[in-house]
Design goal:
By secondary structure, the chain is α+β, with helices and mostly antiparallel strands. The chain has three helices and five strands. It is globular and about 60 Å long.
Length: 106
Amino acid sequence: ARRSGCLRIRSPVHRGGESALSREPGRTCIGCGTRRPQRELRRLCLSSEGELLWDRDRRAPGRGAYLCGPGCLTAAVKRRSLGRAFRGRMTGGLEAVQRELEASER
């Protein structure tokens, strides 16, 4: 039976006993599918011309896709998940991003 006028109050504590305010945003790598905190992943975005860019500051407008590293970029291309993440609007820039990611790993 339903109670009229009764409000259901949600607790700020979630699984694992963490407070909702202390949790940081999580994102999924489009290459391997691993879910990690946002700060551990690299964000890719599209320029206004549709070129793929590495968004180092994580502040560029529009849709973004997250990667663990250079190996996951290769996996994302193989799985065709870059096209899905950017809804097919990507026109190029893949080689430049791959070089930047590999250089940042050294």
